[in-house]
Amino acid sequence: MIAVDPDYQRQGVGSALIDFALNWMKATGISIAMVETGGDPGHAPARCTYEKLGFGLFPVARYFKKL
């Protein structure tokens, strides 16, 4: 999970944190990284950051049913 204080968003903090994690993962031999976030407007900044860092959207259908 990653979060940036609203006062510091849009300044590259989140991107720097993710870059650090991706570089560490690659150095340890991990070859694929996956992130998830919501599709609602409140998560648009996160989606923008992931796309800017080269993550591609993987279309998936996930179904739930409350019992």
What portion of residues is helical? Answer: 25-40%
Distance between the termini: 28 Å
Largest sheet: none
Dominant shape:
globular
- Poorly predicted runs are none
Number of helical regions: 2
**Rg (C-alpha, Å):** 14 Å
Determine the mean pLDDT: 93
Write the element-wise H/E pattern from the N-terminal end onward.
HH
Describe what you observe in this structure.
The chain is an all-alpha fold and 67 residues long. Helix content is 36%, strand content 0%. It has two helices and no strands. The chain has helices at 13-27, 44-52. The model has no long low-confidence stretch (mean pLDDT 93).
Task: Give structural attributes.
67 residues; mainly alpha; 0% strand
What's the quick description here?
This protein has 67 residues and is mainly α.
How are the SSEs ordered, and which strands pair?
Blueprint: H1 13-27, H2 44-52
